[in-house]
Amino acid sequence: MAEPGVETRTGSSVITARAAATFDPVGRSVATARAFVRDTLQGWGYSEVVDDAVVLTSELVTNAVIHAGTAADVLCLRSADSVRVEVGDRYPEREVPIQATGHTFASLDSENGRGLMLCSALASRWGVEYTPTHKQVWFQLDLPQRPVGTRSAGPALPTAMLPVADERVRVAVTQIDAAGAISVWNADAEHVFGYTADQVVGKPLADFAAWPHTPGIGTGIAEALRLSRWEGSYGIRGTDGRVIPVYASHLRVRDSHGEPSTVCLLVRDDERAVLQTPHRVPVTDSATDKHTTDPFEVFIGSPAPDDLDGLLQRTVERARDMLDGDAAFLLLATDDETELEVRATTGLPSARQRFARVPVEAGTSRYGSARMPAVHEDLTSVSGAVPLLNSTGMRSVVTVPLKVEGRLTGSLGVAAESAGRYTNEEALRLQFAADRIALAVESARLGELERLRRGSLSFLVEASDLLAGTLDRDQTLALMAQMTVPTLATWCAVYTIADQASEPYLSYVLHEDEERIDGLKALLSKIAPPDPVPAPGARVWTAPAAAAQQAALRTSRHELGLGSGPPVSSGIDTTLATAAAVGGETVVLPLVARNRVIGMLTLGKPSDDHFRQEILELAEDLSRRAALALDNARLYSERVAISQSLQRSLLPPEQPTIPGVEVEVIYRAAGEGNEVGGDFYDLFPISDGVYGFAIGDVCGTGPEAAAVTGLARHALRLLAREGFGGPAVLERLNAAILDEGARSRFLTLLYGELRPQENGGALLKVVCAGHPLPLRLRQDGTVEPAADPQPLLGVMDDLELFEQTVTLDPGDVLLCVTDGVTERREGTRMLGDEGLTEVLTGCTGLTAGAVAARVLRAVERFAAEPASDDMAILVMRVPEPQHM
């Protein structure tokens, strides 16, 4: 039963909605419960009581999950004039202090009983209920009296103090389906962004949004679209490629079939007052707030974004609103505190300043007010004091440092378009807020940096594996570009330098939008390439952006009829799109390998965008690996070209035509990139009506075997044309091989002389020195060896070889092969002489070319694995006479 003196019911109000959730007994559940109650009540439109409900829920859930050590069940109930929140735990025997029994509440510094004391102070009604297994504390917050239909209201203001907007305020309405694609695009959206509904419906919103979060880190647009509510700033890329800053309000809904979608309302950022939800100013003078409200959450709001970009964006928006400014910005310091990098802005021209870097102390355009609070009443009198605000129309600005343990970690500033808006009082207020968030920002920055470094390491490992997996120059160039776009840059161009005397050559261009590649390539082809400076690191290259802007200006003048030439009726869209694509920061990194600049890697961003320092450092690491891979590919290509040129010189010249004899040769060299191996063949004229032929096999494969191949082929031709017979030719060749000493190789050789006969046959004189025997196929299908075996070459000094005579009748075939054919294996099986004989037996009546093809097909089909030995097939056939 309920304790006496404490109400246990909400009254007669009808419950119109409920939402429930259970939270595990872990510390993070307190923050999750706060977020659940805040989102629920805001979704119901009860923003007036959100803060009190969140404070009470936080204390009661803390009691349950931290002190009682049990799960917490949270139930939100909505009625027409109030909201009730029930928090139950599973520790009913826990003591509850009650005033009516003489007990006193715990002090504000004690954890025990604080939640009940806050309920007594803040809630309209509250109570405690017990069951055998649960204890439940509930509180009810009545809605303040307000006119019907009024959600919030502000005071009447003079006209001069009202927000500025265009005469026709346009609110773009778009609806995003469950897959993240645009399903609705109204007329105002077409006017603001330039796209018609047909151009965008069915495409992801992410294709057009310039989301203010670093890819791969923190909340992205896909996650934001799945939240029940979201409100904030980002950009939309218009048809000209430029980013239009917008303020957006997202609401997640579901249709009658339960299908979710997100309705997005968008206005230009300078008209944000149309959509922006008024922030409730927290009460800071109550005793309870002194002990229950975190100053960080007072400024940032609860729950705070859990990613760095979200935290920074929330910070600049709250800072601007706190000082009623027109713009705000936050810069983070580099590790050595020498530069500041722009990380979040609001009210300034889109994301053009994002990741821009300015010096802190020295040089022109230094950030002069980084380390101490500073107020500039009129920036026109202190030019360059805050480089970020140059040409933005801002006149007055207040900036304060972010410091952690005395070290500069960043700078926060708020600016206004009118002069004299800020004094030291505003600087103190802003510094107080900066001190509250500095530690959280630095902690989030270090966490992001650690995640980025881990991601960079994985990226470089994968890049190294991909680059090491190819020795093809063109493929290496393509990999370099594909690894940088879009991971590191929006577009990429690779210049290569053939040698020290050559100019850089534009070898590869890539853009994340394929439709922009041709325009980008044409633009870069018209401007001088960057200088091949070997100094490490990225350097800024302004030529592409300047050339693109000039081209866009000329095209626009022609389009308007202002140019000196005839008006141009087409091409302005392409030119403007190219100008937008290369209008941001462009950097050049040298490709240095073996102490020589072999090219340049150029990375670019779209209009007004900048690279962050960590990305440039990652790109520098990638460029070193890519340069070595590109140079290895060059060296390999040169080696292959030289090898192939030398190998082609070892192949016989054009095969002679022998009257009355069909000849077909098939040659396959084992090994990648080899055109000649240890096997060789030759067919050449010796004298009128006499032709020499040879087929041989040098022990081994590759270049060493090919060297003996060249020696044998040239020696055979020379000796045969000097008039030596077959045995003498081979004996002298044997001596030449032995003279090679340690470089000599065993050689099996079938050599013969062919004399076509007037009666249609052919007479052959052959010597078979250790080579597989030639096979003769007769017209009746019989197959027999056409020679006897004799000793191979390159082993003994004194050889006694003899010549044998073979006659080929019309229709006969002589098949000569190397042992790469007969020794074709699969496991323990081998084709062998018997298998080759069987194949040849079925070739009766076939031409020489058909016989060679059938033998090759039989060899290839004998085993699934590719051949590992060189292979040569020589077929000679005397055709049958044609009968009229």
Q: How do you describe this structure in short?
A:
Keywords: Hydrolase. With 884 residues, the chain is of the alpha+beta class.
Q: What this model shows, in words?
A:
- The protein is an alpha+beta fold and 884 residues long.
- It is built from 20 helices and 34 strands.
- A six-stranded antiparallel β-sheet has the order 7-6-11-10-9-8. Strands 14-13-12-17-16-15 form a six-stranded antiparallel β-sheet. Strands 1-2-3-5-4 form a five-stranded antiparallel β-sheet, with helices on one face.
- A hairpin with a 5-residue loop joins strand 10 and strand 11 (260-268).
- Helix 1 runs antiparallel to helix 2 (50-67).
- It is elongated and about 125 Å long.
- The termini are far apart.
- This is SpoIIE family protein phosphatase.
- It comes from Streptomyces amakusaensis.
- Keywords: Hydrolase.
List the helices and strands and how they pair.
Elements lengths: L16 E7 L4 H17 L5 H18 L4 E7 L3 E8 L24 H9 L2 E6 L4 E8 L29 E5 L5 E4 L1 H7 L3 H4 L8 E2 L10 H4 L4 E9 L5 E12 L5 E9 L18 H6 L2 H6 L7 H15 L4 E7 L5 E8 L10 E3 L14 E3 L19 E9 L2 E10 L7 H45 L4 H12 L6 E6 L8 E7 L5 H10 L12 E2 L2 H17 L12 H10 L4 E8 L2 E9 L8 H38 L11 E7 L10 E9 L2 E9 L3 H20 L4 H13 L8 E10 L5 E8 L5 E3 L5 E3 L18 E5 L4 E5 L1 H4 L2 E2 L2 E2 L1 H10 L6 H15 L8 E7 L7
Antiparallel strand pairs: 1-2, 2-3, 3-5, 4-5, 6-7, 6-11, 8-9, 9-10, 10-11, 12-13, 12-17, 13-14, 15-16, 16-17, 18-19, 18-22, 20-21, 21-22, 23-34, 24-25, 25-26, 26-27, 27-30, 28-29, 28-31, 31-34, 32-33
